[in-house]
Design goal:
This protein is of the alpha/beta class and 419 residues long. It contains 14 helices and 24 strands. Strands 22-23-1-24 form a four-stranded mixed sheet, with helices on one face. The longest helix is centred in the middle third of the chain and has 13 residues. The structure holds uridine-diphosphate-2(N-acetylglucosaminyl) butyric acid (EPU).
Length: 419
Amino acid sequence: MDRLVIEGGTRLVGTVGISGAKNAVLPLMAAALLADGSTTLTNVPRLKDIETFTDLFSHMGCGVFADPEAGTLRINASRLTRMEAPYDLVKTMRASILVLGPLVARFKTARVSLPGGCAIGARPVNLHLMGLEKMGADVAIEHGYITVKTSGLKGARIYLDTSTVTGTENLMLAAVYADGETVIENAALEPEVVELAQALKKMGAAIEGAGTDTIRISGVKELRPLEYSVMPDRIEAGTFMVASAMTRGNVLIKNCPLANLESLSTKLVDAGAGITAEEGGVRVTGNWPIKSVDMKTCPYPGFPTDMQAQMMAMMAMASGLSVITETIFENRFMHVAELRRMGADITVDGRNAIIKGLGRLSGAPLMATDLRASAGLVLAGVVADGTTEISRIYHLDRGYEGIEVKLNRLGANIKRIKE
Ligand code: EPU
């Protein structure tokens, strides 16, 4: 297992480019299953999660041709042999559930391992299944697998009790071939949902309302394979914005989807950072002392849960008291114990973390617990006094393309120790 060794105390200065969005690529890959022929995706980042998904597509019998250097991925879904996602793949990446909708839509059957809980919460998929049942599918859970069968999905009115991102995506993917109109209410508003709708439309689907809480899909008979360039990753961009702000840095972020990062930008400005859109990117400058600000994670366009750990690291460096409330996942404070090892003063009370910013962190040996928590710890290590060593960084490789390479180009001192 690789480790990162970070010599801290650096200020980040320079230019960084943002890669394609992990959480957009995964549903776009799932969309490839809907068409007979070859889908080509470009601007695909080199990430472990995408490799895992690629393995699943090979397992199902797709032809998969990846050129990681060029950032292209071709998926030929003409001849599937297995409409199933096995436990071994789903347990490493729960977003594998995204193949359920398209498999049922095109082949009328699917068998997908039921994802278990994960480091950040229980994360049920009941709403994905409820939606398929509303469309007339028979859903059973047997031996740890979800089995879905249908003689043909029918349009339905589906109300989601909780706004769910992959749930909305899965049901959009399922509804494209259904007989009649499907209406998804309380749909997720996330930019990745809008991206998927745009891609499906390009394939010939009839979808209206993505980006609002009501999405309407009229079933069609056939879809064309897709050619699509993936949007930049708003969470990777947000992570570099925080990195610059908390190190008193001056970083120009290229391909930064600032329009999708308003809730984060507002908090960073309140904390004293400067954010300006320039030709070629977004410049983020940091100022010390960092001001403490409160935040509460919410579905888009609210403050993203995927930025919570990074902002907590920054608030530990602030002067003053801040409260961070996590409303999306019940167990997404695993980084707190690690930040405390760096001298942070953080108390957790249910869904609230109370951070007494001390204006400093000190390097320590740490353990990464999940993807975004790891990113928070890396940023903490870059700004802290002394050496930080982070183990179990495979979490980080799931969702950040060469994060230490990009940070080092900005002046950080991070070594990857391979084991
Ligand atoms: N929920 C249910 N029932 C369901 C589905 C969701 O109760 O059937 C609940 C969840 O337990 C949670 C809330 O709804 O409390 C929202 O979860 P959501 O389904 O939106 O999360 P997700 O689709 O599993 C995606 C991202 C996550 C990101 C969340 C929230 C992908 C592949 N994953 O997960 O990304 O945190 O939305 O924005 O798009 C990450 O990239 O590190 C990551 C975890």
